[in-house]
């Protein structure tokens, strides 16, 4: 077994985390202090929890491979399909990202702001008179699904199916996950075939025409990006919005401060990303025997850099357990780092900023209905709540 003899008596830390997934942070601290590099028998991987080590892992794709971390999974665990950008190494990763960036441009994202605001207002109009809403169900879930579907040119009647596929893919349900990927690929292939015959003003049509020196994306690569955008884009935005409002509820003075000074909102969002990181951990494979800290890890073994733990590392962040919207600098790793920096981060930030701006403007107060217990989303790497009922008080 990979762990050394000194680790054989180690407590089952991941079991403790899974018992209280909404508050893994005390365990993260203990891990950083006592077991900064340790082997998890539950996940068959080395968990890396200190900021410097996590940054090293995600910044070195040659030594810590995304692509090989998928190949190393046991037979039958992986859907045999083209890997998404997330699971591709250089040099192909660089080529793919350059091609995708031609279609998924900063201007494309910035131009979405008016439509995002329209969607947010539309959903809030349906609940404002009721005096309460479920932030996740009524806003945070549908918003990114609608935005991504419209980006891809997907008709409104199919958007609920998008949500269904996304929920399954981030869940532990392996067989259902495999079937969801097959169904999603079949759907996107149908859309690609239609766009090849009749191009429209949408992202899939733009992806079909993107090229560098005569090199185009294959259909399989376009499908893989659509899957990535749907799942990662939806889950990141949904949980970032939910995590923000949950955290603001715990810190009422912050909500009031942001109402008085909405220009502080971008910094507040960055602090939410650090404080309650939507994607808590990643997965990489060691390509050459190496040392991390005091541990020798062999080629082929899996490491899991824990972003949520790194973002509370006392050596980099002053009072990391304190939620501080004025924190500067805030060098969190919530969207990764290096070549795999989240390609959808600008979209998640935009959707969250627009949604929060409107909530802060329309409502004098938002308070969680504490009688309803919080439930963590069914995922070992996504951090968020399934629902977040809140009372609303409209501004007069």
UniProtKB/TrEMBL annotation:
One Pfam match, by short name? p450
This protein's UniProt keywords: Heme, Iron, Metal-binding, Monooxygenase, Oxidoreductase
Q: Does the keyword Protein biosynthesis apply?
A: no
Heme among the record's keywords?
yes
Q: Which SUPFAM superfamilies match?
A: Cytochrome P450
Coiled-coil positions are: none
InterPro entries referenced in this protein's UniProt entry, alphabetically = Cyt_P450, Cyt_P450_B, Cyt_P450_CS, Cyt_P450_sf
The similarity comment for this entry is: Belongs to the cytochrome P450 family.
Q: Under which name does UniProt file this protein?
A: Cytochrome P450 YjiB
Q: Which organism is it from?
A: Dictyobacter formicarum
Q: Which taxonomic lineage does the organism of this UniProt entry have?
A: Bacteria, Bacillati, Chloroflexota, Ktedonobacteria, Ktedonobacterales
């Amino acid at each position: 077994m990979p762990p050394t003899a000194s680790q054989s008596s180690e407590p089952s830390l991941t079991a403790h985390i899974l018992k209280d997934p909404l508050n893994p942070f005390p365990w993260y601290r203990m891990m950083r202090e006592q077991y900064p590099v340790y082997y998890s028998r539950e996940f068959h991987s080395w968990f890396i929890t200190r900021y410097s080590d996590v940054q090293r892992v995600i910044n070195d794709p040659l030594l810590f491979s995304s692509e090989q971390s998928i190949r190393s999974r046991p037979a039958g665990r992986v859907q045999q399909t083209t890997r998404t950008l997330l699971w591709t190494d250089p040099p192909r990763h660089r080529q793919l990202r350059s091609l995708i960036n031609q279609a998924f441009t900063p201007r494309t994202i910035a131009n979405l702001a008016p439509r995002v605001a329209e969607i947010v207002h539309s959903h809030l109009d349906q609940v404002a008179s009721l005096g309460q809403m479920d932030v996740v169900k009524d806003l945070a879930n549908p918003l990114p699904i609608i935005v991504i579907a419209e980006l891809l040119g997907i008709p409104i009647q199919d958007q609920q199916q998008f949500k269904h596929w996304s929920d399954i893919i981030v869940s532990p349900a392996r067989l259902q996950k495999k079937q969801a990927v097959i169904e999603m690929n079949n759907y996107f292939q149908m859309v690609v075939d239609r766009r090849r015959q009749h191009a429209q003003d949408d992202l899939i049509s733009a992806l079909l025409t993107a090229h560098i020196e005569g090199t185009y994306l294959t259909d399989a690569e376009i499908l893989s990006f659509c899957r990535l955008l749907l799942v990662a884009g939806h889950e990141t935005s949904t949980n970032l919005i939910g995590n923000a409002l949950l955290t603001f509820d715990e810190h009422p003075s912050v909500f009031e401060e942001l109402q008085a000074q909405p220009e502080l909102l971008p910094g507040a969002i960055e602090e939410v990303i650090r404080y309650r990181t939507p994607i808590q951990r990643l997965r990489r494979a060691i390509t050459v025997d190496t040392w991390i800290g005091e541990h020798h890890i062999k080629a082929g073994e899996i490491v899991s850099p824990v972003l949520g733990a790194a973002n509370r590392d006392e050596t980099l962040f002053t009072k990391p357990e304190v939620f501080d919207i004025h924190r500067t600098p805030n060098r969190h790793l919530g969207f990764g780092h290096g070549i795999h920096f989240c390609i959808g981060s600008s979209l998640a930030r935009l959707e969250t900023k627009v949604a929060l701006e409107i909530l802060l403007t329309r409502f004098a107060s938002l308070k969680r209905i504490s009688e309803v217990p919080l439930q963590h989303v069914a995922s070992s790497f996504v951090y968020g709540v399934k629902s977040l009922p809140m009372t609303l008080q409209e501004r007069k």
